[in-house]
Amino acid sequence: MTEIGRDRVLRAALELFGRDGVAGTTLSSLRAASGVSVGSFYHHFAGKEQVAEALFIECLSMYQDAFLEELRAHDSARGAVPAVVEFHVRWCRKHPGRARFMFTERPSGSDGLADRNRMFFREVRNWWRVQARQGALIDADVVTAFVLWLGPAQELSRLWLNGQSPEPDDAQVALLSEAAWRSVGR
């Protein structure tokens, strides 16, 4: 299967997993929706769990790369903290299927996922430490920092993506951005 075929499987998976979940999607429906042969499918994936893992890593990589780009675009913590909150909601709006999948499906740990997260959190942790040493941010471990910084925006996005609330509006995002700064800024 060419990379085009692999991409077709991942695109079909995003749609089917988003509608039926990984557990509710059959391998035959995934293969049929992607339009690839059985042999082509098994050339790259051992089963739908590997498809789900590959899709999760692809979505997470897109999010993390864009997150780091937004973080690097700001000279100060005061600019970066609210901007990253806004980025998070904006990314979820732009990629609702991917965001919904990331919020609802968690693959068991894989080396690819662990390596990706390790790189991402190392860079964010290093940025945070510099800002904390300069007195711009509170001195907190990365988990606490993320919960305070992005927890409310993640929950608002999750509620919207699950159909439990309307799409976040600009006023809500601005309020959460300022609240994040008040939680972690000095």
Please, could you describe this protein's structure?
There is one protein chain. With about 190 residues, the protein is mainly alpha-helical. The chain folds into 2 domains: about 45 residues, Arc Repressor Mutant, subunit A (Orthogonal Bundle), CATH 1.10.10; about 140 residues, Tetracycline Repressor, domain 2, CATH 1.10.357. It is elongated and about 55 Å long.
Sum up the structure in keywords.
single chain, 186 residues, Arc Repressor Mutant, subunit A, 9 helices, mainly alpha, Tetracycline Repressor, domain 2
| Alpha plus pi helix count | 9
Computed CA radius of gyration, to the nearest angstrom: 18 Å
The overall pLDDT average reads 94
Name the CATH superfamily assignment of the largest domain.
Tetracycline Repressor, domain 2
Helix-strand pattern, N to C? HHHHHHHHH
> What percent of the residues sit in helical stretches (DSSP H or I)?
over 70%
- Indicate the multimeric state: single chain
Unreliable stretches: none
Query: What is the correct CATH architecture of the largest domain?
Result: Orthogonal Bundle
Counting structural domains, the number is 2
- Assign an overall shape: elongated
Count of beta strands: 0
Structural class category: mainly alpha
Largest sheet: none
**CATH topology-level fold name of the largest domain:** Tetracycline Repressor, domain 2
- Determine and state the CATH class of the largest domain: Mainly Alpha
What distance separates the N and C termini? 53 Å
Sheet-strand content, in percent, reads under 5%
